[in-house]
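STRUCTURE:
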């Protein structure tokens, strides 16, 4: 996809995501991701959540584990182990104390299993987090009907695509 296409689709997805999120008064902290490889850009979501006074966290790999760091400034981000922008801060928050996780996905199956890049970082970090707290924002073509996942793959409860919102039981 071209940069213009990614921007257009990301902005449209951000509006749908934020519109839906507005119905959840209890969500005060959100873990976002820094996009790579043409993933849906979360910058518009980040900006609106900051405007609303929500706490934002970003993932960082420390000692081969994914942790979530409180956002302070994009100026403090550096490229991490997999050439993904990560916060350089040290204020970690335990996943059980975060209200919502927006996870990157290569694909999401019809049962909510998430396909990542194969490192298992999100699977391990979020294995004890209820799936109701895990959402994904993907393009239409990333919602696949023939992916069932593996036992260790985390499930998402909400999937936002260009054309639909899927609530997965």
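SEQUENCE:
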């Amino acid at each position: 996809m071209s940069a213009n296409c990614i921007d257009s689709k990301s902005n449209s997805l951000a509006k749908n995501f934020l519109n839906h999120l507005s119905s959840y008064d209890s969500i005060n902290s959100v873990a976002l991701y820094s996009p790579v490889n043409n993933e849906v850009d979360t910058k518009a979501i980040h900006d609106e959540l900051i405007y609303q006074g929500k706490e934002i966290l970003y993932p960082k790999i420390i000692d081969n584990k994914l942790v979530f760091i409180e956002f302070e400034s994009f100026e403090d981000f550096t490229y991490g182990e997999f050439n993904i922008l990560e916060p350089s801060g040290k204020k970690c928050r335990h996943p059980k104390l975060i209200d919502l996780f927006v996870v990157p996905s290569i694909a999401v199956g019809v049962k909510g299993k998430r396909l990542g890049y194969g490192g298992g970082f999100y699977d391990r970090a979020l294995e004890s987090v209820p799936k109701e707290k895990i959402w994904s924002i993907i393009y239409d073509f990333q919602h696949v009907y023939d992916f069932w996942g593996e036992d260790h793959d985390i499930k998402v409860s909400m999937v936002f695509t260009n054309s639909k919102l899927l609530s997965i039981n």
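REMARK: Residues 35 and 129 are 22 Å apart (CA to CA).
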